[in-house]
Design goal:
With about 100 residues, this protein is of the alpha/beta class. The protein is built from two helices and five strands. About 25% of the residues are buried.
């Protein structure tokens, strides 16, 4: 089944975060590994067949700007909480790959 994906930049705490989004259903936030991310994995398409999948690039990875203030994993967690709020998602499931977990 073909899944439509969109891409956009969202400004969070003065930093532009690149976000891919596809599918529909319950929201799922996918956080990539610390070695980076491939733009699209078959795994993402499979998730998007059943869920509203949101895949941000971590700060400083891919097309996202590097947030100079980000120093600790809790800072990253705060950034993604702001992202979910910006997208109007109250209860998203989390899929973390490597450091993203």
């Amino acid at each position: 089944m073909a899944v439509g994906w969109s891409e956009r930049e969202i400004e969070l705490a003065g930093t532009k975060v690149h976000v891919m989004r596809g599918g529909s259903g319950r929201p799922v936030l996918v956080l990539h590994h610390d070695i980076g991310t491939v733009d699209r994995l078959p795994f993402y398409d499979a998730l998007a067949e059943r869920f509203d999948v949101v895949i941000p690039n971590h700060s400083g990875y891919g097309k996202s700007e590097r947030a100079e203030w980000l120093r600790h994993p809790r800072d990253l967690a705060a950034m993604y909480q702001w992202l979910l709020t910006e997208l109007g998602m109250e209860r998203a499931s989390l899929v973390g790959l490597g450091f993203g977990g």
